[in-house]
Amino acid sequence: MDQDKIKAFAGKVFEDMAGGMAAGLAYVGTRTGLFRAMSGNGPMSMDTIVLASGLKQRYVEEWLNGMVCSKYLEYDPDEKTFELPDEYSYLLASEGSDHFVGGLFYALPMMLGVAPRVAAAFETGGGVPFEDYGEDGILAIDLMTRGLYEQRFSDYWLKSIPEVHATLEKDGRVLDFGCGAGRAVLAMAKAFPRSVFTGLDLDKSSIEQAEDSNRQSGPLDNLRFVSGSVSDLDPQDQFDLITVCDCIHDLTDPIGVLKDLYSRLKSDGTLFAIEPKVADHLEDNINAVGSIFYGMSVFHCMTQSLAAGGPGLGTCLGPAGVENLVRQAGFSRFEVLDIKSQMNLFYAVRH
Questions:
Q1: What are the C-alpha distances in Å from 105 to residues 108, 139, 267, 273, 349?
Q2: Which helix (H) or strand (E) holds 293?
Q3: Which of 55, 199, 258, 335 has the fewest Cβ atoms within 10 angstroms?
Q4: pLDDT tens digit string along 290-305?
Q5: Beta carbons of 92 and 99 less than 8 angstroms apart
Q6: In degrees rounded to 5, what are phi and psi of residue 224?
Q7: Which domains does the chain possess?
Q8: How far apart are CA 300 and CA 211, in angstroms?
């Protein structure tokens, strides 16, 4: 055996384990507000951080040391101060922005918490149902997407389809299928007060959270939420725009659902789909984002679909996979939109 190759791989194992620990510590920093307490304050002593955060000293001390070793914080050994640089704070302490990464850290315990059950499913089949991820699962997904939806959905993403944007400024009718906690449809309803919006999701807990968010922000008169499937909508409901955000790959009956959406889309309407940014071939996904998405697939997206008897398409469906599904559902026009994003691909699908 190649001893250098063994040594190099051993180093990678330690790096990956260190990354897992760093992400866990970053979750704590996000959840407890430690990153926010340090943001914009320059070098701080441990006592100052403890006072600012209101947390227990021994835990804060060990967390600070771990975050220094993980290179999330900078440390001055002479002054014994810790600093969260502004460049790091931009990502770690910016909840509600389109560049906040805290949702990724929230997803980690939510997903790895079911790892023993997922491992068992490798032998027995089935998987972990969506509802078993509980409120933490809904919150993690919400935090990963909230800022993006609020900051970019209406002002940037939908402008890439000018005819849709123009319709919504007048009197469009919009369905957000699989709306989750409702951030996307809330953002659209605020931006286009002349249009009418419906958020639809099978998960009752997600709809309850969406309705609560709507109450806190208004509520908006041009927005309603429905817990159920497409068949639970008024049979006469037809839509100019149907949005499907990051959930086609999760569906238990993707072609059936897409056929239902096809029947609810006006002849000149558009289905706007968002899916993870992955390539169609494995060799083109050998990078950090690919690693994240395949992990998310095993521990969440694929397993919850298989648990419900679905095909378990998984997070890494890719453009060819999405196009194949929508064409089987009856759509004839498929376009990959030119929208810049590190994590997402965007599609416009039409009759």
A1: 5, 11, 42, 25, 32
A2: helix 288-296
A3: 335
A4: 999 999 999 999 999 9
A5: no
A6: -135, 155
A7: 3-93 (1.10.10.10), 109-350 (3.40.50.150)
A8: 24
